[in-house]
Design goal:
Layout lengths: L1 H100 L1 H12 L8 E6 L3 H15 L4 E6 L5 E6 L6 E4 H21 L2
Length: 200
């Protein structure tokens, strides 16, 4: 009987051991599968994070490169424009200023233009303040007499050289100032200057 009990105990022990081993292997197999799934999921998520980071970095790099290209193009264009303005101002500014500061030349232009106006309607003339001493006696005397008194003249610090002339009612005016001549001459010189300086 002792043998039978021992056999039964061994049998139960072996069956329990086999069952426990089988369950252990099943649990271990499931744990390995879950671990493999978790690792695979982590790898997929990591790959997606890396791909997104690379895409974001490329987009940022492209935007930065585009911004740098645009800023450098704008800077180059502004520099070219400044150089162009300096050259045009040098070419035209001094000569225009000298011509419009020549009192005799200015008198001739003023007389020629004023005579084309209808003096009976009145003429408003604005001249540079710095030429008041040279022009005021002529304007109030000889020019006023030639225009039969229909002249109203003023002097302004806003006009560097030249003059503006208009009907007395002020509906419109013609500018013969240094600024208007500079702008007009610059408009014609600018394309030639640009071609000479930059080959454009």
């Amino acid at each position: 009987m002792q043998n039978k009990l021992q056999e039964l105990t061994e049998k139960l022990y072996n069956e329990g051991l086999a069952k426990g081993k089988e369950e252990g292997e099943l649990i271990l197999s499931q744990a390995k599968k879950e671990a493999a799934d978790t690792i695979e999921k982590a790898k997929t998520e990591a790959a997606a994070i890396v791909a997104k980071a690379e895409k974001d970095a490329q987009a940022l790099r492209s935007k930065a490169e585009s911004d740098i290209r645009m800023a450098s193009a704008q800077s180059l264009q502004a520099t070219k424009k400044d150089i162009e303005n300096l050259v045009v101002a040098k070419l035209s500014g001094e000569k225009v200023a000298a011509a419009l500061a020549d009192v005799n030349f200015l008198k001739e232009i003023i007389r020629s233009v004023a005579e084309k106006f209808d003096a009976s309607q009145g003429i408003a003339l604005e001249l540079p303040e710095k030429l008041r001493a040279e022009l005021e006696p002529w304007v109030n005397g000889e020019l006023a007499k030639a225009l039969k008194g229909g002249l109203k003249a003023g002097f302004s610090k806003k006009i560097a050289g030249g003059f503006t002339i208009a009907p007395a009612d002020g509906g419109w005016f013609v500018s013969f100032t240094q600024e208007s001549f500079d702008a007009l001459i610059a408009e014609y010189l600018r394309p030639v200057t640009k071609k000479l300086l930059f080959g454009e």
